[in-house]
Write a structure and sequence with these properties.
The protein is mainly alpha-helical. It folds into 2 domains: about 70 residues; about 55 residues, no CATH class. The chain contains 3 helices and no strands. Bound molecules: zinc ion.
């Protein structure tokens, strides 16, 4: 196929081929750089992801530790009061044992069940 091409044609052909090769090399370089950038980003994201997962599990452990001891769980006696209240009975000092109306809620009861009673035994029954 190349036999009958004259010198100038041959030169043109070579120049064109040479240019194409250079373009190809340039493209491959660019592609390589893009691949490198993507791999780099991927590595950074993996590290960041790992870091965030550690933070999340630390935070979850911390929360479990604090709620588990305090507000998360009621003492057995309060748990019983809560059950009574959920069945529709007052558990507060004011109305203990009386029925709540349908859908009624009592702040005294809620305070008795969930309130902070660290000041000792609840007052009441003075009369
Ligand atoms: Zn009540």
């Amino acid at each position: 196929m190349v036999e009958r091409i004259n010198k100038s044609d041959l030169y043109d052909h070579f120049a064109r081929l040479s240019q194409q090769t250079q373009d190809l090399v340039a493209n491959m370089k660019r592609l390589q750089e893009e691949v490198n950038a993507v791999l780099e980003e991927n590595a950074e994201l993996s590290i960041e992801n790992e870091h965030l997962q550690q933070l999340v599990s630390q935070q979850a452990a911390k929360e479990a530790a604090t709620t588990g001891g305090e507000s998360g769980k009621l003492t057995p006696s309060r748990e019983n009061l809560k059950k009574l209240y959920q069945r529709g009975f007052h558990v507060c000092n004011e109305y203990f044992g009386k029925r709540l109306d349908e859908g009624e809620s009592c702040t005294f009861c809620l305070d008795t069940i969930y309130g902070d009673h660290s000041l000792g035994a609840p007052k009441g029954g003075d009369r």
